[in-house]
Every structure is written in structure tokens, then in C-alpha cells.
## 1
Amino acid sequence: MEEFYRGFAQRARDLAEYADPFTKRRLLDLAQRYDLKSKPGARGGRILPPPRATPPTALFSGSGEA
């Protein structure tokens, strides 16, 4: 997944080279956000919660009829 976000960040930077100043700034901001997502554990990076050991009880609390 890290390579995916790094690739998107590089594409945004490449496009920014040819863009007007407003669009260039937005593309560079986007590239920076993708860079953060490409580094797990970094501030702003993606941190996934630990998997559940058991399903939520709400799935089993009904009467069983649809």
C-alpha cells in the first residue's frame, strides 16, 4: 500500500510542474498528504485498528427473524 500512495504522490508532483500556480499548490498539498499516507505510523499516516477477536454482539441480539 505504501508504494501505491508514493506513486500517487509522484504523479501529483509531476502534474504540478505544468499547472498554473493555484492548481500547482493544490497538487503539491495532495502529494504531501499521499506521502504521509505512505508512511505507516507517521503522523497523518494510516494506522489500522487491531482486528476484532469476536464479532459485535449486536449481530446476535435480534429474534432471528428477518
Note: The mean pLDDT is 79.
## 2
Amino acid sequence: MVGRSGAELIAEAAAAPVDGWGFDWLDGRATEERPPWGYARLSAARMAAARSALDIDTGGGEVLAEVPQPPPLLVATEAWPPNVAVARRTLERLDGRVVQVDPDAGLPFRDAAFDLVTSRHPVHTPWAEIARVLRPGGHYLSQQIGAGTMRELSEAVLGPLPPPATRHTAQAVAAARAAGLDVVRLDRAVLRVEFHDVGAVVWFLRKVVWTVPDFDVERYRPQLERLHARIRADGVFVAHSRRFLIEADKPAG
């Protein structure tokens, strides 16, 4: 993006669509290391062995659509209306059903309806509801956002922040056990993220809304201009995402 002003880059990113949960717009403008466990591969293996599966917070269905061998019954939930339409188109070839849900309500499915539940980067993990809709012997697989993810970027916009109070792995393990699930795997990773222009920062903040919850281009324009100058000087802005993988079983008894 050599030669383009911060204002031009910001305006371009502010006008770009952010529907769905794909990140193709950032190609060539930002990079992120991938977790070592390979969530897509793990999900595909679990789906191939399942008879019925539920994917929670599917976004635009992009990750679920990578499954090469879906189960006979495949259902996904999504709360954000623009994503629901995208997910229905994306998952049509898998015969997957997408259900729009209220994020503050329970899962609209009967007890013991699924032998597999998955979720990649859920906004909130409804542990009790997951345990309820899993069949005895069923399995939950999830890649989640860890505490303090992208903190460097949040603080570049908001200033110094207190230590994160949520999304700690110990909290997830305790909640899973409280719901009656047995945690069988827990892995953690800290991953390098590079932004190569301020437009990539703006688009990311519009897409991943919890990084700066009240993000607005005009409200934070001075901070964005400072980030533009910093990237021009250093060549890149570096932050770190934090992820953890958790797998849990519902006791067969």
C-alpha cells in the first residue's frame, strides 16, 4: 500500500463488506499464524464418524463447508442475520440446515439430539445447553478465543487495559465440568498476527467487534492515523491472538 494515505486506506476499509466469517479481504494485507492442532482436520474427522452434528456460531458456514464427509444430519446455528443468509448459501451443497437463534436463549433442539457438537470461536459457550443436546457418549469439539487475544491492537486504540477477566481456559474447564461433561483435551497457542496497512486494521476491527467493542472510524480516527504512521515507520504492526482447543465428552451412563 505504498504511496496511499492513511485517510484513503481507512476509507477503503470502512466501505468494504464484512458479511460472513471469511477473511479473504485481508489477503496480502495481514497474516496470522495457525494453531498447531489443525481444527479443520479434527472437525472433519469427528464429522465423518458422526450420525448427527450441530455447529454453533457457524458464522457464514465457511469452516463447516470444508468438511468432506458430513453426517446424515447436519445443523448449524447463527445469531447475526447477515451471516444466516450467507451460511444458508454456503452450506446448501452439504444439505446443512442453518437455524437463526437468539443468543440469549437456549438451543432450539430436543434433548440428546446430536452425537457431535462443534464450535469455532463461539461468542459464548452455552455449556449446559451443549450437555443437554448431546447424546450420552457424545462429543464436543471447539477452538476458542483465549484471554487477552489481540491485546496489543486493543490497547493501540483504547489505551492501557486491565487484565482480562474472561476467556481463561480454567473458566472453560470449570464450566464444562459443571455441566456434567468430561474434558478430555485442552491445548493452548499464542499466534503472531501482522498488519501491513491501517486499512487491514480498520477492516479487522469492523469484523472482529470484540477487539474494540465500540469501534467507530470517526471516533478513533486519531488513533488510526497514529497506527498508520507506526506501520509506515516499522513496516508492520504486530499483535498476538490467543487460542485454545477444548474437547469434552458426555458420559455414556
Note: The longest strand covers residues 182-195.
## 3
Amino acid sequence: MMTRPGFRLALCATLLALVVVLLGAYTRLTHAGLGCPDWPGCYGFISVPKTEAQLAHAELRFPDAPVEEHKGRNEMVHRYFAGGLALMIMMLGVQAWHRRHLSDQPVGLPLLLVGVVFAQAAFGMWTVTLKLWPQVVTAHLLGGITTLSLLFLLTARLSGVFTPMPQVSPRLRRLAAVGLVLVVVQIALGGWVSSNYAAMACTDLPTCQGQWWPDADFANGFHLTQHIGPNYLGGKLDSTARTAIHLTHRIGALLVTFSLLMLAWQLRRAGLKGLAGLLTVALGLQIALGVSNVLFHLPLAVAVAHNAGGAALMLTMTLINYRVRPAFAVSRRHAPSFWQHAHVLLHLGPHR
């Protein structure tokens, strides 16, 4: 099938969104989330201050936030790429609106993406102004994954290659939907682990702190209405609260694994062996990266790869749900008009 207008731009935006997600993870894992204490600039400049005059100005404006060039650089590179992605998404929205008269041209999805990217910009600002408040940091991560997934879905729709398959069982559709929800929840839990610095709360497997069930404070670990500030760099929770967060993420991983293996089996039975294999590989790699994070004490490269694995698993689930959903819509070009429907109904009336 021929690709549709906007496909190349959507594909480029999807790839850029993946880069932005990974840069966000790298920024967070290198503790550079407050590398620039203001937004959207850095100490009042469009880049990290370097000259003596710029450094003096930065010290005067932000006396409690000394310039750390490597952290500021990580933060600003992430912002530059995110800004470029926002421009591309707005171009997709404008193009979709101008091409709305074309058959099979998605309009709602590109416009939704424009709204999401504006929300992401707000969360990016609040991440800095609220000093890495875990609720905002986690929401920002989910917004990034949402942006990536919606762009991937738009690319799939415009590709002309991936088409929905109506001849699948309702059971398979339900399993795919449940799997997608569980993956989203697990990514949110991963963000909560990261934003509360709980990744090293358990440094052994399969036990935690040498026990199957160590002391864990779930009430404080998931106290979502905790007060804001003054600064969450390094985390504010005690060890038992962080242990609770880490344990919950592990339990979530077990649920996701069981659910997705069932889904892969059902996909294979339905003849969708390619999707089943893709899901199994993505799940296996993510499990291996998660285990490696614990056993090797969160090496930076593995931690970033674990974020990439989560994104890959989310994209896989997005593709699966797109393929197995019922093809309830037809092309506008071939869809019967209202008057054609009326004519058919009137013509059939006397024969009933």
C-alpha cells in the first residue's frame, strides 16, 4: 500500500520523540534535572553560562544554585531536542488540518498530539520550578511515553502497511487492552521509583535486603498528596518507604510478565506469530535489563537502556492493540453517503 501524506514527518517525529525520552532518562539519572534552575533558559541564558560575566550574572540571580556545566549541558540538550519535537508535532497538526478533506487523513490524532505536547511543556517547566516534585516528574515521564506512543500510532496509520485485523476473537482484544493498561501502570511505577530514588532500595534478587518481605512503608511510599518542596533532588522518603515503592515495581513486573506471556500465546494461536515474537523479545529484554539494574547496582548505560526497553514494550503494545482492534471505520472515499443509506432503506422497505 502507498504511504499517505505526512508519513515521513510522522516517522521522523517518532524517532525524535524516542531520543527525547532517552535524553530525559539520561538527564534524570545523571541528577541533572535541576542543572538549570530556571525555565526555559539556563540561568537566564539560552545555553549554559560559560564566560566570567555570565557566571557572575548566574551567581547573582541564583546564589543557591551554583553552575555545574555538565549538568546544565545535559538539561539544555534535552530541552533543545524537546523544542524541536514540539515544532514537528505542531507541523503535523497544521498539515492534518489542511488535509482534512482527504480520505483516510487522521485529524483528531495529530490535534490531540498538539495538546499533549503543550501539556508536556508545562510539566517540563513544573519539573524545574517545583524542584523535582515526584508527582510532576512521574507525570512528565508518562507524558513523554504518551507522546511517543501517539506519534507511533499516527505513523502506523499513515504508513499504509499496518492495518487493523477485524477477524480476531474478543478475548484476544481484551487481553491486548489489559496488557496495555498494565504496561502503562508499570511505566508509571518505574517513574515513581526513579523520581523517589528507590531503585537501590533492594540490591539483591529474588529477595530484597536478604528477606522475602522486608519492612516496607506503603502509606508514605505512595503518599500522593505530600507537600511540595523545597527540593526533592536525592529524594525525601525514608528507606522503608523507598523499599515499598521498589517492591511494588517488582510485583508489577511479575503481573506484566504473566499477562504479556498469555497475550503472546494467544497471538500465536491466532496466527499472528510476528507480533507474538516481537512481544516476547521486547518483554525478555526488559526483564533482563531490570534484573541487571539490581545485580550491577544501576549502571548508567543499563538504566538508560531499561527506559528504552520500557518505551519499546509500550510501542509493541500500541502496535498490537492497533492491529487487533475491529476495523469499524471505512474510508471516507468509499463510505456510503446519507442519501445512499436512505435510498437502500427505502428500497428494501416494501420487501420486508
Note: The chain has a mean pLDDT of 91.
